[in-house]
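Researcher: Going back to the complex we discussed earlier. I've cleaned up the inputs and rechecked each line, so this should be the final set. Can you rerun the prediction on the complete assembly and write out the structure?
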Amino acid sequence: MNMNFNEERPIFIQIAEGIEDAILSGAFKEESQIPSITEFSVNYRINPATALKGINILVEEGIIYKKRGVGMFVADGAVKQLKGKRKEQFFDNYIKNLVEEAMRLGISKDEVITLLERGFVK
Amino acid sequence: MSIEIKNISKNFGNTCALDGVSINFEENRIYGLLGRNGAGKTTLLNIITNRIFADKGEVLVDGIPSMENDQALGKIYMMGEKNFYPETMKIIEIFRWSKEFYPSFDMDYANKLADIFELNLNKNVKSLSTGYNSIFKVIIALSVNTPYVLLDEPVLGLDANHRDVFYKLLIEKYSNSPATFIISTHLIEEVSNVIEDVIIIKKGKIIRNESREELMSAGYTVSGMASLVDEYIKGKEVIGTDSIGGLKSAYIMGQVFRNDVPEGLEITKMDLQKLFVQLTNA
Amino acid sequence: MSIKVATKYQISEYIKSIKIFYLVIVLVMVLFGTLTIFNSSSSFTSTGGIEGSAMIFLFILGLNSFKETFLMMLQNGTTRKSMFIGRLITILVTSAFMAVVDRFVVNVGGLINTINENYYLNGMYEMIFQSRVKSLHIVVMNLEAIIITIGVYAAAMVAGYFITTAYYRMSKMLKIVVSIGVPTSLMILLPVLDSTLFGGKVSVALGRFFGFVFGGKTGNPYNLLISCILFSIVGIGLSWLLIRKAVEKN
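Model: Rerun complete. Updated structure for the full complex:
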């Protein structure tokens, strides 16, 4: 999991998203153990409280669960759940921006669709 | 358990170094004490550790006034920018004495860190470079295991690699055996992810004292055409502006209401560095 | 706890210098001892030389005992009070140790003297209180000499310590004024005023005063001891007033 923090959004959200990305890419498999809070914070030089806050988001969503005295694990079905969540956000995060930029540049709807098709071919 | 600073004031001749400063440093947190050079950071740390005396106010360490109190002072280690160790003393000797004065000092860990930083323990203080002068003190600070560790410009003279190692070790130490760390620095960007709480000091006064997240969400940047920006910022708490040609950026304190942001203006979060620069500008 | 470590540290600072001091003393004694024994025309005479050098040595040691130690104590969370008490213990221990060693050295010198008359090493106590020495049992005399020497040594260290703490607290300007002012008034102004205005009465009075302090005429060593104790108490008191409010400065 490779992260470059930017200052646009809080670090703890970026940590949560970084772990989500790692789960989606298969780097962290379902039912496998993920690094500890200390490992995350030491590795990324962030305050442990921040790392904990980020991971707690995922725990609340049921993507990660904690085993007392053992560590933290990726929940069964986490990938499916994340895909669902990301799909919901897909429109807000990508399509909206895409359309806005297209309008700013005067790219027509048809042209956008053509470009999209080109993207899928690649 | 905390270091309570109560209404501390300090003058040097006619210059006021600290003016009615009150802060609470709580247990097991990492604080960033940020301020420009000469803002009063070191003066404050020196008063906490009894190196100098305040004109007014008091410092309580776990409820005990720290003034000339061995028990209170023994709970604090300060890594100062200036060297207080005898110049001709070897580092190994300094480690040994640290163990005498602070029985919680972990000699094995200190030796391990010396290895990591490639510090020659048989050198004396005088023969160390600026970087290694910081390094040996950093090593003591990380090995001393007191409940309160004050770090005044800890990365002074350290190269990029050593700085990175330091932050890594700091987090590691803090995770394994929590203590209160107070990091005084003007290099905000580097510590911004490490610290939990931010205290900004300006001309001897505390102007901000809140969690990092709170501070970061306390303000935002709006940019766009100058005329639009000017219109938008009317009646808002503007802490600074930048202009390039017809483009203008304004730094605003307060919450942003997305609905009343006109078309053509862009809202972004303020980063800590920018916020700091704007807040501490004369 | 803090006082203990503060004392330990401050004693440790002295160990190296004291070792060097005695190395030199032993070298001198051995060198001249061999010369005297193997060359009948040469002789070695020292009267009060051991204690005299020790006094100067301890005064200088006192002079070098403040700044570095003070900063080290501040760095290690030790209060001025603990540091100061540690200093007093250190002064006492050092004085006592050196008084005993020096007494031993003087006695060794006496022993060599009985073997070779050209080798003559006498203690300061014997020098000042000549008449008294003969009237006392040798053990009592040696014990008394040790006690008196401890007082003298402690006073020398306190004097050095007081001067260095005073200098630490002074501003640069004041330092210059005192450095020039005190010697000139003592060495030049006082004698000149004495001879022109007081017709030499001041020097006579001073002579009597010091005579009394050293117990010279009456031959009473306890005058000297009490003088040293009083001097030390005043010096210690003044030093504490200076240290109490001393701050880090560079």
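Model: Worth noting: The first helix of chain A runs from residue 11 to 25.
Researcher: Good, that matches what I expected from the previous run.
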